[in-house]
Amino acid sequence: MPNYRILQKCLVLVMLALISALLLAIASTASSIYLYGSISNNIKADAAIVLGAAAWGEEPSPVFRERINHAINLYKNGVVKTIIFTGGVGDSNEPAEAIVGRNYAIAQQVKAADILTETQSRTTHQNLKNALEVSSAHQLTKFLIVSDPLHMKRAVLMAQGLGMDAHSSPTPTTRYRSFRSQIEFLIRETYFYFVYLVFKI
Fold first, then answer.
1. Based on the structure, what is the number of domains in the chain?
2. What angle do helix axes 152-161 and 124-136 make, rounded to 10 degrees?
3. Is residue 21 part of a domain?
């Protein structure tokens, strides 16, 4: 009986140690995602890749609009020469996210010749993979990834995993400003970050 109790205590201690290690890993990863989002590498690049977000009919959603606005600013300031819009069709009766982004940018005096699109992707990894295929045909090799700050760490990791010379360029006007929206986004990103590390998707 004494040996059984000692074994039971050892198992409890091991379980507590494992749980503590897991919680520490989650907290550390969440912190690194949050801090990474404050890093902006607006070095000159060939193109800005705007990661897709929801479109509301012919108009970009507020989140998507701020990503587009940031890419337009990079373009107008001469940081990039090309903007690549990504994102497919959410609803069969609506235009693809990339086309909505393209139309919005053209309305803001971005030259149509300086815009590339891919309209098949539905996930961040697909956004980047398809953008890489589009850019390869135009000899574009250096990229700024444009998305919301809390999305940046996973997005850039994915881009670099695809062999891209990719750098972070988070939107300074992200719509995720409230404490609640940031926490919800951070929890989601932490989960998907671990999923990517394990499954590479």
1. 1
2. 50
3. no
